[in-house]
Amino acid sequence: MTTITLPLIALLAFAGYTASVMLQAEQSLIDFGISLMSRPDTAQVVIDLYLLATLAGIWMYRDARQRGKSALSVVPYLLITAFFVSIGPLLYLVVRGVQDRKKAPGLSPSA
């Protein structure tokens, strides 16, 4: 399995599900977030999720810098992560995999 396949499948499935839910939602994303933070049990889940999002953001930043990219190259992924947590890192992994594949054209698709 390629390094792009799994993140791409997860990205497409989750982004599609997210879009579907948002189109059917009866309240805005901000109102939904406020209602989640109004109870300790759901607030704990939101806080946990954003701690993981922060760790993913740090990883994306460090990974981009190690690959010789500017810190600004990660900003779009961080903004997406701020609103749609999982979609930002998944998109980063897909784009990174595509870029890696372009750099190494001699690699087979199953590498």
Automatic annotation (TrEMBL):
Record-annotated membrane-spanning stretches: 42-62, 74-95
Superkingdom in the source lineage: Bacteria
Keywords in alphabetical order: Membrane, Transmembrane, Transmembrane helix
Protein name: DUF2834 domain-containing protein
Species the sequence originates in: Pseudomonas vancouverensis
